[in-house]
Amino acid sequence: MPADAAAHDIAGLLAALPGIEASTDRALVRQKSRDFFWYSPILKAQLNAKSGEAVLRPRDEAEVLRILTEARARRIPVTARGGGTGNYGQCVPLAGGIVLDMTAMAAPLSLEGGVAEAEPGIKLIDLDLWARERGWELRLWPSTKRTATLGGFVGGGGAGVGGLAHGTMRERGNLHSVRVATMQDPPAVLDLAGDAAAPVNRTYGTTGILTRIRLPLTPAQDWRDVAIAFPDYPSAGRFALAFAHADGIPKKMGGIFDAILPPYFRALAPVVPEGHSLALVMVAPSALIALRELAADHGGRIVAEQDTVAAERDPDATPFYEYCWNHTTLQVLKQDKGVTYLQCRFPFEDPLRAMEAVRTRFAGEVWMHAECNRFGGRIALTALPVIRWKDEARLGEIMAAFEAEGIAIANPHTVTIEDGSAYRRVEGDQLGFKTMADPLGLLNPGKMRSFAP
Q1: Among 91, 270, 301, 436, which is most exposed with the fewest C-beta within 10 angstroms?
Q2: Who's near 239: CB < 8 A, 6+ residues apart?
Q3: What is the per-residue pLDDT for 6?
Q4: Distance between CA 326 and CA 250 in Å, rounded?
Q5: How far apart are CA 424 and CA 187, in angstroms?
């Protein structure tokens, strides 16, 4: 696969695609060739100079097929992009070629039997508000809900708010079905439902271009954001586990943060007492009394509360989920560029012991942050700790120490699906599907390590 721009007939490609929005403006192409990979100093060094050669923005499935047909004929790589909110370089072209901007395909299409169908470029906030008007809401969304697209979340994310109730996108039933365009000869569109859709779930667009997505929803709820301060982090951890197991409390989210982190949360810093750890939760209004009592059982006190949907509709407000998941890292990076992060899952048995072991061993170097989640029907604590960056060797030592405590690592400092997903990997024959759907290896080349064209 040629990696130099001179090897790709971009001019011939564009000439063969009249009527399709396209640009070779260097600044725009560079912008559309990036995501939030710079969270990782390792990926920043690897990816900062990478760029596509042109941006194409299809308006419908027919235009997607035209683009793939002409790109395949010229052996030009195609890298799909949504909102560009990923963190692992999912939408960064490693071999030049086309950046396929999917944001013009952004329509909600139908809602029937609790299943929504939409085009991949729709923002998750828009899809959720559209569903809410019809009595439903998304089961899951990332902390980047206000900017991320549906296709990007399915193709490159899959975990986030709602995971405490529904698990991640890898759980059977959370992705209903998809339409996906391939780079076969000639390119085709496949309808994949149930387990058959697994090969395009969290595969970074390496196995096809999503053109329609069908997601099961859940009945809409009036959620409340609640912030709870605790005198120390172990108390917050004990609360988090009790909260996650409290079946009588309708819940969407539960995150806990060591005392070093709340000062970086602009709207919450003034209300969290100095030296206190923090829990941020989303619950139904009916659960507020029970939540207050549960927090008090663990030494916690509610310090802030707001309407979640009202906050996310207000451009000047911050829904509390934008302090959670990987937004925690972003909030710190806004003020301190000398940090990075990890993605971990604590052992199902005695997770607080493992968490405290690494938190105390790396005090001042690992700023602990964990989210309540479900994996395979079991409650889990998933961590996205902020890490004081020193160098790659020290990061490796920290990851090894985590693993020695039984903590699973999904390494966010690598671009490949195999190395970066680990416990988050979706089951299914992704390699076999890619071999069939993209035999020349033109879809986002370099991201599936096990594939050879």
Answers
A1: 270
A2: 228, 230, 256, 279, 294, 295, 297, 298, 300
A3: 52
A4: 23
A5: 29
